[in-house]
Design brief:
Layout: H1 8-28, H2 35-65, H3 73-86
Helix pairs in contact: 1-2
Length: 87
């Protein structure tokens, strides 16, 4: 999947995740940060990871699975919505 490294949207998502994880590492070392604040940061990362996963799966479908296939775009769009919702 060498095309992924050229996608600025994906690279930026990964960089944001890295920053969020570094922020949690710093937060757990601070005695005045509450567990709730850390849990909120973890929840944000979980959402960001799910978004990244959805984006990667969609790109994989387009670039490797469906690359030259004739597809019903409305069906594909509906499938991707469901995948993002429950994936």
């Amino acid at each position: 999947m060498s095309h992924i490294g050229q996608d600025k949207k994906i690279v930026n998502r990964v960089k944001r995740l890295k920053g969020q994880i570094n922020s949690i590492e710093h937060a757990v070392e601070q005695p005045d940060i509450s567990c709730i604040e850390i849990l909120q940061q973890v929840a944000a990362i979980k959402g960001a990871i799910n978004g990244l996963m959805s984006e990667l799966m969609e790109q994989h479908l387009h670039h490797h699975v469906l690359k030259e296939a004739h597809v019903d775009q409305s069906e594909l769009d509906e499938f991707l919505k469901v995948l993002k919702r429950y994936g």
